[in-house]
Amino acid sequence: MGKSRLEAFSDGVLAIIITIMVLELKVPHGAEATALVPLLPVFLSYVLSFVYIGIYWNNHHHMLHTVRKVSGGILWANLHLLFWLSLFPVSTGWMGENQFAPLPTAFYGVVLLMAAIAYWLLQRTIIASQGVDSLLARAIGKDVKGKLSPLCYALAIPLAFLSPWLANLLYVLVALIWLVPDRRIERLLTD
Amino acid sequence: MGKSRLEAFSDGVLAIIITIMVLELKVPHGAEATALVPLLPVFLSYVLSFVYIGIYWNNHHHMLHTVRKVSGGILWANLHLLFWLSLFPVSTGWMGENQFAPLPTAFYGVVLLMAAIAYWLLQRTIIASQGVDSLLARAIGKDVKGKLSPLCYALAIPLAFLSPWLANLLYVLVALIWLVPDRRIERLLTD
Amino acid sequence: MGKSRLEAFSDGVLAIIITIMVLELKVPHGAEATALVPLLPVFLSYVLSFVYIGIYWNNHHHMLHTVRKVSGGILWANLHLLFWLSLFPVSTGWMGENQFAPLPTAFYGVVLLMAAIAYWLLQRTIIASQGVDSLLARAIGKDVKGKLSPLCYALAIPLAFLSPWLANLLYVLVALIWLVPDRRIERLLTD
Amino acid sequence: MGKSRLEAFSDGVLAIIITIMVLELKVPHGAEATALVPLLPVFLSYVLSFVYIGIYWNNHHHMLHTVRKVSGGILWANLHLLFWLSLFPVSTGWMGENQFAPLPTAFYGVVLLMAAIAYWLLQRTIIASQGVDSLLARAIGKDVKGKLSPLCYALAIPLAFLSPWLANLLYVLVALIWLVPDRRIERLLTD
């Protein structure tokens, strides 16, 4: 089975997730400037989630480059990742509409954590089907970022109840370390 | 006529169906934990439907692999299947928002049943255009799963009025027997 | 410029239109059978529009098969068609929620008429860029269906104020004469 | 890394943006003609935004034709453009629902301006990765339209507070000068 339909379906789902998140930015009631004020936290949470989905799409893109044969296990590990990513719009909206309150901020961290675990599982499934000497296994190496991120999320979840702003700072920091594109796979492909 | 646009269109519709289902998970009012409680049944019904759409996408993917020429009949049988799958979001939302009440649970079963019949019709249409010795005809063989599933749905629909939980258990069981990927077509393609 | 992105974009828009129409089927309030009653006209109008979008996708698919070079004119004629098709969800919802009242039924006819005119314009633009002896020009021939349909819509619009049911009957009849797939292009391609 | 997935993802996001804008055209309450009146400004703003997204898709299409290798910078410059375009539905709805009031009209101009800047940044990023003698650099030449448009938006934003109608006239004028398809790239590719 080829991977083109897997890519097309994942692209479709990610494109829809990134776009329906904007539906949480409800059209304000009234035409005055004060009508925009309650939208500000929703807008900030939208920017954060937009960047996260962008990072996932980017890295997903690179990872699938190394796949040749799509097995049933890869299909379901991929759907599992898409499932957790599909919870971004509702958790983003909940956090934004409550001005980054503790529980919604912690909940957002849970969704980030589960998506990170699902990504790691997909990575494991691909490597398992390709052998430990595979392109992907060599490309990710020690996978420092991939191991650091879930740790940060796991730390941020309880932290959200003490200081939601510190938790959100952690989410932003993790996004920033991923924004540097994952050149490892690109480099190996060039070699 | 090639099948690539048929695949692309079906992928698009399935990607949108699987993603707009999440819109039924409305952003909770209030930032406290109790605001999440009414979302739990909606979340559970979302998980069930996500798995079902994933199964349909997976098997649809395999089935279309065996198609070479797309006839008008195949196009319309495919649209007919997409029609019933497009009713998943509303029936999922109705069942979840009413905590798996009898009538919404039975209605969900009707949509599952109609989608199963539509899938079977599409399968028949493809085999009819390819001949009884076709790859697909040999691949599905006796098609035990394909015959068992509508029977289970037909049983679950009246059962929902006696015990919605038993009906939902049946839906989960059918999903589980399909989660095992349909290796028959893969195996035949390899031979 | 190739036509693959034009097809992909059109497929995407049509897949989204056909799927967001289902969002007008609002999750009913209450779990009893009477909660489904107001949904019936919305459901019927959804079925009609689903079939119409299916017909457009089908014929659009055939028509673009005959295109080799995509000009700026074709791009904009195609976007113009997509614009009118994008008004299907709102006009379908309006007609369904008002139990096929006169004005919404007439409005639905206006959208059908404008989409038919836009389709005809796209056809003209493609033929103009290919010459009168082109594959498409020969394939559509006298284009009886293409000329009859806008006439029926134009007739149904005033008729809707006398009898909305007769107008809707006309919409169904036109859909039925198009459901027969347009084999003219298929036949010519085979020759 | 190839550009086909970048195109597919961008097409998906643009197709969804252009289609969910229509969700702001809410189904009117009531079946009489007066129910349509408040929809008129929403409809007009929808037409304007539809044309703008069409122009962006069209030019994006041409620009990516000149790209051979997709770098990380291009990926993120493209996502940045999609981010600002994703704000079209909410700003369109806000302007339409408030009958082109000053602040929403100015806000719409801000979104147009940011999208124009993002488009220009993407153009710069592509040229930077290809060299100043690249196809794209020669194709855009002095890029009069690309420099004039942000100036017009920057002018229209303060103007909206004096006369929203003049500001909207400017938006329409800029759209009209872009509607003429960008034949420069087509011409160069033909040479």
| Uncertain parts of chain A | none
Largest sheet of chain A: none
Largest interface: C-D, 31 and 33 residues
What is the helix tally of chain A? 9
Short summary:
Four copies of one chain form a homotetramer. Chain A is mostly helical and 191 residues long.
Index terms:
homotetramer; 191 residues; mainly alpha; 0% strand
What is the element layout, followed by pairings?
The structure is a homotetramer of 191-residue chains.
Chain A (H helix, E strand, L loop, with lengths): L3 H17 L18 H27 L6 H14 L2 H10 L4 H29 L4 H6 L3 H19 L1 H16 L3 H8 L1
Helix pairs in contact in A: 1-2, 1-3, 2-4, 2-8, 3-5, 4-5, 5-7, 5-8, 7-8
Write a structural description:
The structure is a homotetramer of 191-residue chains. With 191 residues, chain A is mostly helical. Chain A is 76% helix and 0% strand. Chain A is built from nine helices and no strands. Chain A has helices spanning 4-20, 39-65, 72-85, 88-97, 102-130, 135-140, 144-162, 164-179, 183-190. In chain A, α2 (39-65) packs antiparallel against α4 and α7 packs antiparallel against α8. Chain A is globular. Chains in contact: A-B, A-D, B-C, C-D. The C-D interface holds C 1, 5, 8-9, 12-13, 15-17, 20, 23-24, 72, 75-76, 79, 82-83, 86-87, 89-90, 93-94, 97-98, 101-104, 107 and D 7-8, 11-12, 14-16, 18-20, 22-23, 25-28, 30-33, 36, 47, 50, 54, 57-58, 61-62, 65, 179, 181, 183, 186.
